[in-house]
Amino acid sequence: MGAWFVNYQVWSDSQVDVSEIVEQLSSGKCYISPPEGGWISVYDEMAENYQNPQLYEYIANIVSSISSQLNTSVFAFIVFSGVEFFYFLYKDGQVYDEFCSDPQNSFTFGFKKFNEEVQRRFQGNPESLLSYSISGTTLEEIIEVLSSIKKGETDYLGEDGILHLAPLLGMNEDRAIQGYNYIEDEFSLSKEYRSIPDIEDFIFIDHQQISG
Asked: Which keywords belong to this entry (predicted)?
């Protein structure tokens, strides 16, 4: 079936600030990582409810709200069935860029259909990404990565697309290809088998424990 996961990448150096805002916004369980390379990873249980017909609206609202309240930029990375890769980028609460690896695919993500207007929205803007890239990254590199993802040249498209894109943005690659359920699985492994060495430093939010 392939990989299914969602994560948010928040440009911030304060794990506590991000955790407090996520706790206000999400009604489910969440994990929040410490900062690395300027990015904090958020794994939201509710974002992986793939039966939710308003999943796009839910994720977009969470990402927009985090971005607005922290006056920062936030990516959402989304992979469905291993081959469909979306990202949303919000800056200061406003949508800044959107991308879909195949804007004519069958998974419409809450839209009735991917018409020409929606396809234009989800093309991805390499110049927008360049402003978040590490020093030395060229516009041509970003164009090449997005183009290869659209053409399906990466082995598993969604996950490998992120593995190509995340290093250009200075993100931890292992964190960028995780979701809430994957993080739960990580905790079940012995430390020597974990792909995220500092997972014990993640903040866990559980609204059931808070309300109880």
From this structure: Plasmid
User: In sequence order, what E strands does the chain have?
Assistant: 5-11, 30-32, 39-44, 73-80, 84-91, 94-100, 203-205
Q: Sort residue 59 into left (φ over 0), alpha (ψ -120 to 50) or beta.
A: alpha
Helix, strand or coil, per DSSP, at residue 62: helix
Domains contained in the chain, number: 1
Q: How far is CA 113 from the centre of its chain?
A: 23
**Residues in contact with 9: Cβ distance below 8 Å, sequence separation at least 6, in sequence order:** 39, 40, 41, 42, 74, 75, 76, 77, 169, 171, 175, 176
Residues 89, 98: contact at Cβ < 8 Å?
yes
Q: What is the pTM of this model?
A: 0.91
Token output for 108: 């419409």
Location of structure tokens 């993640």: 202
Q: Answer whether residue 148 is part of any domain.
A: no
Cα dist from 73 to 23, 68, 82, 107, whole Å? 18, 8, 26, 26
The sheet carrying 5-11 orders its strands as 94-100, 84-91, 73-80, 5-11, 39-44, 30-32, 203-205
Kindly tell me if the per-residue pLDDT of 123 is higher than 80. Answer: yes
On whether residue 176 sits in a domain, the answer given is yes
Q: Is the dihedral of CA 67, 72, 73, 75 positive or negative?
A: negative
Is residue 11 a part of any domain in this protein?
A: yes
The region that residue 110 occupies, defined by phi over 0 for left and psi between -120 and 50 for alpha, beta otherwise, is left
Domain extent, residue 185, equals 5-123+172-211
